[in-house]
Amino acid sequence: MAIQIKNVWVKVSEPGLIQVQSFTNPEKWYVVDRLERSCTCECFKTRGWCKHLNFVLEYEDLIHLEEGVWKTNKKFEEWKRKTLLERLKGFKPLDEETRRAFREAGWEYDEGLSAMIHILLT
């Protein structure tokens, strides 16, 4: 998820690693390591500082909140995946005879769709 701060887009890659949109080229992004205080841009490589790092440090409170959202979303995704796998344990694909009946009736059988229906109904 990305947020916009002062017309600049910022994305949390993971806590401490922040992608910052270039100030001059919106197609370009740099990675700022908030904890190591570094950036992947050329200016940082040559001078040891840059406006991307300064930007992240200036808006650290907002970015820290975004990192909290990132962590919460990550935990939710893990919970969702674990729950989905638990619910899929009871799924059994159609046997060959039932699949043949589907084909003879002109119906397509989609195992992925059947698994989703199983999850919704259980």
Distance between the termini: 31 Å
Widest beta sheet: strand line-up: 1-2-3-4-5
Number of strands: 5
Write down the Rg: 24 Å
The average pLDDT is 85
The succession of helices and strands, N to C, reads EEEEEHHHHH
Structural class assignment: alpha+beta
Percent range of helical residues: 40-55%
Number of domains: 2
Overall spatial form: elongated
Major sheet size, sense and barrel closure: 5 strands, antiparallel
Number of helices: 5
Runs with pLDDT <50, length 5+?
none
Strand content: 15-25%
Task: Jot down its keywords.
single chain; 122 residues; alpha+beta; 5-stranded antiparallel sheet; 5 strands; elongated
Helices, strands, pairings?
Layout: E1 2-5, E2 8-14, E3 17-21, E4 29-33, E5 38-39, H1 42-47, H2 51-58, H3 60-88, H4 96-104, H5 111-121
Antiparallel strand pairs: 1-2, 2-3, 3-4, 4-5
